[in-house]
Amino acid sequence: MITKEQREKLRGWFAGRLPDDLFEELTELTVDREEITVIGRIPEPRLAEDAPDAEREAALESRVQEFRERTREDRMAVAREAEHRFGRKVSWGVECGGRRALFTHVAAPVMTRLRQPERQVLDTLIAGGVARSRSDALAWCVRLVQRHTDDWLAELRDSLEHVQRVRAQGPDAETDQAPPADDEE
Questions:
Q1: pTM beyond 0.85, yes or no
Q2: 133 within 8 A of 123, measured Cβ to Cβ
Q3: Quick one: DSSP state of residue 89?
Q4: Measuring CA to CA, which residue among 71, 72, 74, 76 is closest to residue 90?
Q5: How, if at all, do strands 25-31 and 35-41 pair?
Q6: DSSP code at position 18
Q7: Residue 139: how many CA atoms within 13 Å on its side-chain side?
Q8: Inter-axis angle of helices 134-148 and 150-168, to 10 degrees?
Q9: What is the spatial order of strands in the sheet that 99-104 belongs to?
Q10: Could you tell me which residues come within 8 angstroms of residue 140 by beta carbon, excluding any fewer than 6 positions away?
């Protein structure tokens, strides 16, 4: 968990470090303990107003692929520098014509111990064809919770940032002043 200020500094670093012509706009930058994900908007392909959906979809897919290949070296140079500086892997994605595509991203293993009722939920998702494995089923559950609790999770993140600020002001915080001298001489 990083603070709002740290997130703003990270976003500023990327905004300043990315080549000016890489994205039309840096739309999203997310970070966790393992990964920084950078998503930017790229221009849509020029098509006729009445272009069929299949043509539009194929054009968007090719634009994303063209961008990925053309910018690979620039993105890798920024990623190497950021990984060294921030100690996290960097993943990339784009938005184009209302479509979002992630190129590569970290799939971090998460170890947990589940009791039988929780395992039964995962096994039911597998039996129902929603997931191929318990790992897939658990990821599906996390995405479902994330989708339905965004406001609650945002409030929780804000609360955690407040706790970090209060801790930083505690007695172990670094100060520029020396502690007051004792009057017992």
A1: no
A2: no
A3: E
A4: 76
A5: antiparallel
A6: S
A7: 11
A8: 80
A9: 25-31, 35-41, 89-96, 99-104
A10: 125, 130, 131
Q: Which residue has the tokens 């996390």?
A: 142
d(CA 81, CA 9): 15
Cβ 71 vs Cβ 93: under 8 Å = no
- Adjacent-strand bridge partners of 25: 41
Write the CA distances from 156 to 98, 106, 138, 142, 151, integer angstroms: 29, 24, 21, 16, 9
CA distance 181 to 95: 60
| pLDDT tens column, 138-158 | 999 999 888 888 788 788 888
Tens of pLDDT along 114-127?
Answer: 888 888 899 999 99
Q: Give the model confidence (pLDDT) of 67-81 as tens digits.
A: 999 999 999 999 999
Q: In whole angstroms, give the CA distance from residue 122 to residue 114.
A: 10
Q: How far apart are CA 185 and CA 181, in angstroms?
A: 10
